[in-house]
Amino acid sequence: MCFNQILFIGPAFKTKDKLAQMECNPGMSSKEGVSHVLDDYARHIYPFKYVACLKQEVGILLSLWGYFIGAVKLFYYLLADPEIKIVHFLDEIPEPYQRDHKRRYWTCEFFGKYLLCILIRIVFNKKFVYHINGDGFSPCYAARGAFGKAVIRRLFFLTDKVLCPSEEDLAFFKGKLKCKLVFIVSEGIELQQDKVDHCMDRGLIHLLYFGGWASEMSNKGPGEDDQLKSAQNYLQKQLLDLLSVMEENRGLFQGKIKLLIAGLQPGNGFKEAQQKRLKYQQSFDNKTYTTITNSTDYTTEFTTDLGKKCIWEVIHQKHLEDLVSYVDCSTPSLKSSLFKMANICLMPAGDGRGRTRYLEAMNYGLPIIATAKGSNYDMVLNGINGFLIRGEQKGGVRSAIRHFLLHPTDASLMGAASKELVQKFDIQNVLVKLKFIYSNLLN
Questions:
Q1: What's the whole-model pTM score?
Q2: Mean pLDDT score, 198-222
Q3: Which alpha helices (H) appear in 202-224, and where do they start and end?
């Protein structure tokens, strides 16, 4: 079976990531979620045939126009390339819609996908594989009306095979949607070969937190306030809760814990900040962060609004400068440096694209503190390579951090377990599984 028989379709995607090309770090990318999956496939699959059929737009008319253009491109590609036997559709539920299930997104989007499926399966008689990357499918389906559910059921009735990320999703597709051929295909990652030594500087534990809302806030476009409001409020609350935990346990954490809040995207003044980033890059490589995080001019250029205050202002207001720092991870190189510096990785709940960060943290041998939900069970084994917290309680985060304070050697032991567990997510293993699925479908 050859990949020249496979056509991948999905959201708008650029195969050339300039920052990633400038700073090549194995297993590290500036993309997340389905974009990260596509980026990996583009680099490891040859030939990689891809058509961007979907693009998130604000407004029904723009969305309809986007679907029309995507359908025309798909029609032309299928007509022009007779080698194609299978169309592999990559999809994910955007974070705002995971939190706000009542959006028209699900009816409009899936009706468009259903029409594309008809074009592929009935008009061109090709095999159709639907691949959902990330969590959030079952709760959104449950919130749909009768028409929305009927559209989704009809889509999966025409689908030859369904690929999903976790056992929970597999049970849903087989049970609720009556899909017979469902396979678990995890997001892959290029393994980090170099051994990373996460030494504690004078017993100080570096706790790395990735705030998933930073990129959403900084890249917000006109008319998107309502669309992103639910996700922003939810993720901001998590960050404020985490800062409250640091504030309430100041006496216990003082001199023992340093929380690094990693921002994902630069704000205004990017070019000027890039020059400063290059100036301070050597400091990151030497595993020191004080010259960066203590520079108010530098950090404020990479902060985004948290209500009416930026992150740095909230930290200052709570007098947490000695416990918390806001750092930039807008490029793969900076992101890699942070993973090398950290001892523990704390992931926000409800971020559908967080799987990429989980894999990157595991790839660098870090234990993970995460919420017990969805595909997290496949990546974090409670008590083995980290801790899964029930619900979104501050007490669970506090208990997990206190465990590492009382048992600091567990950070290294659990980190080694993460490094071992990430082997099954090797992108080469994922591609072997895809080949098996394709061959089985063609035969």
A1: 0.79
A2: 61
A3: 214-218
